[in-house]
Specification:
The complex is a heterodimer of chains A (about 350) and B (about 650). Chain A has about 350 residues and is α/β, with parallel strands linked by helices. Chain A is built from 13 helices and 10 strands. Chain A is about 45% helix and about 10% strand. In chain A, a hairpin with a 5-residue loop joins strand 5 and strand 6. Classes of the chains: A alpha/beta (about 350), B alpha/beta (about 650).
């Protein structure tokens, strides 16, 4: 009887994914990039859709929400997991609406709609549709293909933004920015300055990769950012999450970089694919930060001093939206003030709180 | 120890999490004391769910008195047939041992199973808070192969002795390290279990290590170390370690095993993490004006009164704490009531205990289960209070930390004894356990010197007759030097008699062999001493003022006579080299006789005691000191070497 076997298999996969999330992220840079996490989450959600027992869209959404809550609780700083879950929930709603035959009007919140619709939003999602499962799975597959193409889409826009003989600054290591710069380097010649981003020093790896691609690279310490900023034409950075107000949660040191850029009126460009956009706001003190083992800052071998001193090692930084000039994502470039519209296209308001 | 909570999670959970995250797929848990409770706990936990990647088998027996018994049982039941990881149930760690595992496997493949065990140490400076005094160890390690040459516990020792055999063991460079913290994690091969069965007096891992080092020549087994700089691995073996590991846990040194990660997946146990390492679970209520200063972990449904000041503490679930309470380095378990105006410094309070008003607990107090300490009393440092009377005869050796159920059974007995209000306060319940009155208890667990030894002089904490194995007998006694000297004299005597009484070489060999066994000298040393005795013989006979030519005339006939004796000992290539190094040593001491050196060497070559290849190899081997370099530059020697090389070439051409 394949049923129960499939279920235990599914629970095993979910448990394995959860433990991976909890253990992964030792802070020495994410062990897996956000893109892989996003892909794995989506694949897991597809598996749940295929194998779990559900009869109507409402049941499926319940199951996904429940698992989703566990996944986000496992590693709150890994927002791509939550984002993918919300995307899938939106897909389910859309597919359901399409199967029901109701017109595909944009269910974006607008004042007019609030006034005119009034009370119709009591969708039960209880009607079973035979083809719903396959439709949902197809849509998830499309989402997966989209995820795979994001880095290339962003890199294709590089030539519009980078001109010859420019000096570009970046911080830490971002695969998106790396692809972006390498793509531009095929046709243009420019310099890159990389801030090393202590204590994990991922900037070193980024600099090595860029110089292998033939780009002239310089590595500086974080403390030298302000001093060097006067010679920089543009600052291009990656980020871990884009928050709902247009702000960023990026690797620590980014706020310093952003402030220095603002002071010198240097444009700050953020390359972030759409799956990093999260409906969270930055006022949740408890889940915003991630502190890892203080070993990187003051090693354990130091001895007696450790019991007298408090050592912290935060991983992320908040960058307010005023400091950002442009977001480049796989669907084009946007201003930070436009982020809220993009969000409503991607996620349904009821899913903001899992 | 495995079930006691550390940061509100039982310690065995940390160990199992460490093993699972390393990729272990099958775990055997051996318990002897409180076995049923451990079993119940594990079966409720996430390790025994069907989706767990790590299958846990629990094996219990009352006969396990030590690590040795457990391993003998493993061998008897043939439970493991490949390399396994040996860990205590109270190890908290996040070390990634995959590299150590790879090295271990590689070594075993290369050297055909000589390496029996790899111990994992963490680098940490001496005197570090997380180093347990009892476990302090000095290790001599060969730099290239990471093999242990000498291992000695240093607790309480003011002087250390190192046996000479570590210098002679053939390694070019070795380090003596005191900066290693024993994490009590070892990667063992199946031979370990067999070795424990063979030697049934091995009780602990230290016995094993020492025994192996002593018997290294006979059995050829070696132990290696792996030292990590990153990662954290400490065993909680006494209360001081409990304090320090708890602090480290709350300060996130054991990331990702942090309190808010809730890795045990228990419902309702997740907590949130705020600045300054403050963790709060759900349902915590904090009174007006109370401050959680830093490094605090509070369990669920606990309520704390007004104007409290809490720092560096761990508080369990469902506790009720009154107003104006000061807690510093306090470890409070579940369901504890603390009334107002109490001050607790560096103490442990177990489940369901109650502390009434106005009580002050000074450093290093322990209140066991269900104890009540009455109002307005101050307990001096190091007091231990338990519901079990210290004088009671306990049939099954239950320690004072067993809880309710057992106390209930014995209630008739205890009712006859009255609680002493002077000790525990007017409404108090419990008995004070004094350091001297405890008879020996089970090997694990907190026993009387609960807090272990502290580096700063601490008045009461010196008595300890507990679990730790016999302290430091000097590991390998080193009267070897005397033995060697005596042997030297004896060989000299033998050769003299041989000369005078014209004894045949076979008999001489026999005598020397018997001397070797009598004084327990290694074959290599026999050979070297023999060489030196022979080379020094002319000096012995005629005094030290010999010219080189006289020396040579005396020595050559001796060499000829005793050639068979030499040939008996100098067989393998290594022997040739050893003989040559003894030869070198001798001549380094006798600088004036370098002229004679060549003749002697040539003679030995002609008598076929030494082979030309070996001589050439010895010559070209890096000279280790200036003097020996000078030796090699000696004209005569160089000519001889040249002649040898030509001779070798011509002999090769001739063939």
């Amino acid at each position: 009887m394949p049923g129960p076997y499939k279920e235990t298999d599914l629970t095993e996969r979910v448990e394995a994914f959860l433990s991976d999330l909890k253990r992964g992220g030792t802070g020495a840079g994410p062990l897996r990039g956000s893109a892989e996490t996003a892909r794995e989450t989506t694949a897991l959600l597809r598996k749940i859709t295929a194998q779990a027992r559900w009869s109507s869209a409402g049941d499926l959404m319940e199951i996904i929400r429940k698992d989703g809550r566990r996944m986000t609780a496992a590693q709150p700083s890994e927002t791509t997991v939550g984002n993918m879950i919300r995307r899938v929930l939106k897909i389910i709603r859309e597919e359901y609406a399409r199967s029901r035959g109701s017109s595909e009007e944009a269910d974006q919140e607008s004042l007019h709609k609030l006034l005119t619709s009034g009370g119709l939003s009591e969708e039960n999602f209880r009607q079973p549709f035979a083809l719903l499962k396959s439709n949902v799975i197809e849509a998830i597959n499309e989402l997966l293909t989209e995820l795979e193409g994001t880095t290339d889409n962003i890199a294709m826009q590089a030539l519009e933004h980078i001109h010859s003989n420019e000096v570009i600054m970046t911080i830490g290591r971002s695969r998106t920015v790396e692809a972006f710069l390498k793509d531009a380097a095929r046709k243009r010649k420019f310099h890159v300055i990389v801030a090393e981003c202590a204590p994990f020093c991922q900037g070193h790896e980024m600099a090595t990769n860029l110089s292998k691609a033939g780009i002239e690279t310089t590595v500086i310490t974080d403390a030298a950012i302000f001093a060097v900023m006067s010679r920089v034409n543009k600052v291009i950075i990656g980020t871990q999450t884009v928050l709902a107000n247009g702000g960023l949660r990026a690797i620590n040191g980014t706020h310093t970089l952003a402030l220095a850029a603002k002071h010198h009126s240097t444009p700050l460009i953020v390359c972030a694919p759409m799956f990093k956009l999260s409906p969270q706001f930055p006022n949740e003190e408890d889940t915003f930060h991630k502190f890892v083992s203080p070993h990187e800052v003051l090693p354990f071998t130091e001895g007696e001093i450790l019991s007298k001193v408090n050592v912290h090692c935060p991983v992320f930084d908040y960058v307010p939206p005023e400091l950002i000039t442009l977001f480049i994502s796989n669907i084009g470039g946007h201003a930070p003030s436009y982020i809220y519209r993009l969000m409503s296209e991607l996620y349904h308001p009821e899913d903001h709180e899992l | 120890m495995a079930l006691l909570p550390l940061g509100n999670v039982a310690m065995i959970d940390y160990t199992l999490e460490f093993l699972t995250s390393t990729g272990v797929q099958e775990t055997f848990v051996f318990c002897c004391w409180m076995a049923s409770k451990i079993k119940a706990h594990l079966q409720k936990s996430k390790w025994c769910r069907p989706s767990s990647p790590n299958t846990v088998h629990i094996i219990t027996s009352d006969l396990y008195r030590s690590l040795g018994d457990v391993l003998r049982d493993v061998d008897a039941k043939s439970l493991v047939r490949s390399d396994f990881i040996l860990v205590y149930g109270d190890v908290v760690s996040n070390i990634d041992i995959s590299q150590a595992l790879q090295e271990h496997r590689h070594r075993r493949k290369m050297d055909k199973n000589i390496s029996v065990m790899t111990m994992i140490f963490k680098e940490s400076s001496p005197g570090h808070r997380s180093r347990c005094e009892e476990d302090d160890v000095i290790v001599a390690v060969d730099s290239k192969s990471q093999q242990i040459l000498h291992y000695q516990k240093t607790q309480g020792l003011k002087k250390l002795q190192f046996p000479m055999n570590i210098f002679h063991s053939g390694s070019e460079e070795f380090e003596i390290r005191h900066d290693l913290l024993d994490s009590h994690i070892s990667i063992c091969s199946p031979q370990v279990a067999e070795l424990f069965t063979d030697n049934f007096d091995y009780q602990t891992r230290d016995d094993f290590v020492r025994g192996l080092l002593v018997n290294e020549e006979i059995l050829g087994n070696q132990i290696h170390v792996h030292v990590t700089q990153d990662g954290y691995g400490v065993r909680v073996s006494n209360l001081l370690m409990y304090d320090s590991v708890s602090s480290d846990l709350v300060r996130r040194w054991v990331y990702p095993l942090t309190p808010e990660a809730n890795f045990t997946d228990q419902e309702g146990h997740s907590c949130t993490y705020s600045r300054h390492n403050v963790y709060r679970a759900s349902g915590v209520s904090l009174g007006h004006g109370s401050q959680m200063e830093e490094n605090v972990l509070i369990g669920c449904d606990t309520s704390i009164g007004a104007n409290c000041y809490i720092s560096n503490s761990v508080i369990g679930d469902s506790c009720i704490i009154g107003d104006n309470v000061v807690l510093d380095h306090a470890y409070i378990w579940n369901h504890v009531h603390i009334a107002s105006n109490v001050e607790i410094i560096q103490s442990v309070i177990c489940n369901k205990a109650e502390v009434k008003e106005g009580v002050t607990l000074k450093k290093q107090c322990v209140l066991a289960y269900d104890v009540v300490i009455g109002p307005n009393i101050s307990l001096p440092e190091g007091t231990v209070v338990s519901m079990h009377h210290p004088e009671e005869e306990e049939e099954d050796d239950d320690e004072f930390l067993s809880d309710d159920a057992d106390v209930g059974q014995r209630s008739d007995k205890t009712k006859q004894k009255v609680f002493n209000p002077a000790e525990v306060g007017a409404e108090g319940k419990g008995y004070i356990w004094k350091a001297s009155s405890l008879d020996d208890t089970e090997e694990e667990e907190l026993s009387q010197c609960l807090w272990g030894l502290v580096l700063n002089p601490d008045p009461e904490s010196d008595t300890e007759d507990s679990d730790t194995d016999d302290p430091d007998d000097p590991v390998i006694p080193s009267p070897e030097m005397d033995d060697v000297k005596v042997f030297h004299m004896e060989v000299l005597g033998t050769l003299q008699r041989g000369l005078e009484e014209n004894i045949s070489c076979d008999n001489l060999v026999l005598e020397i062999n018997s001397l070797k066994y009598a004084y327990n000298i290694s074959l290599k040393e026999v050979m070297q001493i023999l060489t030196r005795v022979v080379l020094e013989y002319p000096f012995q006979q005629q005094g030290t003022h010999l010219t080189p030519s006289q020396y040579v005339t005396l020595l050559l006939p001796l060499l000829k006579k005793w050639a068979p004796v030499f040939k008996n000992y100098v067989k393998r290539a290594q022997d040739h080299l050893d003989c040559l190094s003894a030869f070198e040593e001798h001549f380094l001491e006798q600088e004036s006789h370098w002229a004679a050196m060549v003749k002697v060497l040539m003679n030995m070559y002609e008598l076929e005691i030494l082979e030309e290849e070996m001589i050439l190899r010895w010559f070209s081997q890096g000279a280790t000191s200036d003097k020996s370099r000078q030796l090699r530059k000696n004209q005569g020697l160089q000519k001889f070497i040249q002649w040898l090389e030509e001779a070798e070439e011509s002999s090769e051409d001739g063939e």
